[in-house]
Automatic annotation (TrEMBL):
Cellular component, GO annotation: cytosol
Keyword rRNA-binding belongs to the record: no
Binding annotation for Mg(2+): 8, 58
Keywords recorded for this protein, A-Z: Cytoplasm, Fatty acid biosynthesis, Fatty acid metabolism, Lipid biosynthesis, Lipid metabolism, Magnesium, Metal-binding, Transferase
Compartmental location: Cytoplasm
Matching Gene3D superfamilies: 4'-phosphopantetheinyl transferase domain
Major location category of this protein: cytoplasm
Gene responsible for this protein: acpS
Cofactor(s) essential for the protein: Mg(2+)
Protein name: Holo-[acyl-carrier-protein] synthase
PANTHER family: L-AMINOADIPATE-SEMIALDEHYDE DEHYDROGENASE-PHOSPHOPANTETHEINYL TRANSFERASE, PHOSPHOPANTETHEINE TRANSFERASE
GO BP: fatty acid biosynthetic process; lysine biosynthetic process via aminoadipic acid
Domain 4'-phosphopantetheinyl transferase: 4-104
Amino acid sequence: MIAGIGIDITEIERIKLAIEKNPNFLTRTLTTDEIAALANLSEKRKLEFIAGRFSAKESYSKAMGSGLGATVSLLDLTILNNELGKPVVTKHPFNGQAHLSISHTDKLVMTEVILEKGDITDGSFNDAE
């Protein structure tokens, strides 16, 4: 059962300016595992990665129905790429699955998060509550 859907659009240039103005932006936005994932990326790809994670965390908080704040913060979520390069929410406060999609152009990143309750691992659906 879908528990929430959230989307976000973020300007990559806005994230670049935030990084330049605030030296703590990365540590306030990304977890240590996400920061470590930046190591082997080009400068352009780093900006896309950071903007994508920021936007995805915004989408996640919207799917939770709260926005960023008391219920969920940027550092409550870790989003890493799996072995195929797909971004996956590996740590989050929701008791269920978090499905994520990230797309970007040279200027914008768009993300969508769908939060799902229930067990669908065996092909059938059983409500987890």
